[in-house]
Amino acid sequence: MIWLKISAESILLSIKELLSNKFRAFLSLLGISIAILCLISVFSAVDSLEKNLRQSVNSLGDNIIYVNKWPWLMVEDYPWWKFIQRPEVSREDYFALYGRVKTAEAMALWRWVQTGTLQYENEEVERISIFGITQDYNQVRDMDFAAGRYFSELEFNTLQNGTLIGYELAEFFFGEVDKAVGQTIRFAGIDLKVIGVMAKEGQDVLGINANFGLDNTLYVTDNFAASNLNPPFESGPSILVKAKPGIELAELEAELIGRMRIARKLVPQQEDNFSLNKISLITGVFDQVFNFIYVAGFVIGIFSLIVGAFGVANIMFVSVRERTNIIGIKKALGAKKFYILLEFIIEAIILCLVGGLFGLFLVFSLFSLINFFIQDSDLSFQISLFNLTLGVLISVSVGLLAGIIPAVMAANMKPVDAIRS
Question: Which of 116, 111, 143 is nearest to 129 (CA)?
Fold first, then answer.
């Protein structure tokens, strides 16, 4: 019971201290509030950005290897003069690999054909990208349909003009996506028959889906693209290879290197004239950037915490001096050192907790304001339970450190001297 009594008295004294010296308490606790604001806002913002960025990148497939001419990442000694001499990934490479990579679950050729104007009756949309794909593309990348269907095997093997259209394009031209199926649209002067509308995918932070997503793009078979679209192929194709379940990407990568070298007839002394890219190359860069931001935010927060801790310590020293005679009376009546020590430590913790909660309130307010202004985007800032708990624990820890010296000073007072003073 004495624990509860001491805790209750400490809480009441803390509240009394805040109410009786509002301005002094506000200035002292402002450091804690600013520190929590800096730390938790930076940590939460980085967590939110990291989550959105990883979702954006993972739309490319975290279990897929991309066979390309160029590597995705440029390093300081980037030998572009070597890479520019490499041959483009070709249909011949694709057919050399198809069905021969034992660690692959599915494989497809994908290429960005061109960008042009899409028309239907009197409506048109400019700068629409059209892609050519081979048959297993829907196995490499999950494709859901809001209406219609995927290409048939016959359509892949012939030059039929079927196309898959993005959800937002279907909505723009036809109002309801179901009405798009069976309609004929024109791209770069060529008639295309809509056979399917892809499910809405939404935008992402990096803008990957804006250019390579499903909402504002068209898909045709690679055969049709090669024979009918002019100018063909604005960029080199990619071979997308999806690993079998349980197969590590490193194992798939090793087999792909061997198969590609055989397909291109490279002797052991020759370097690879192709690149194998994967999502981990991009996420690795994210990790370095986010770690740097974490450290920078932590350093800023630490300095603010030090200032805040001195402010709380100042309050506690003043509180000890104002209640010196009360401390002396308590000790004269038999109060142990530990109870005096506990009383002031709890009071310091409560003060820091108030400052920390105010800092968390500022973080919530800041994020709510930011989310209001970016509500049209898919990016949002949220405070995770972990960061919320971290803010509270930091506040309690600072209170413990800031209150320990004044509490020890109070606990070590001699009753007679304390009463006289």
Answer: 116
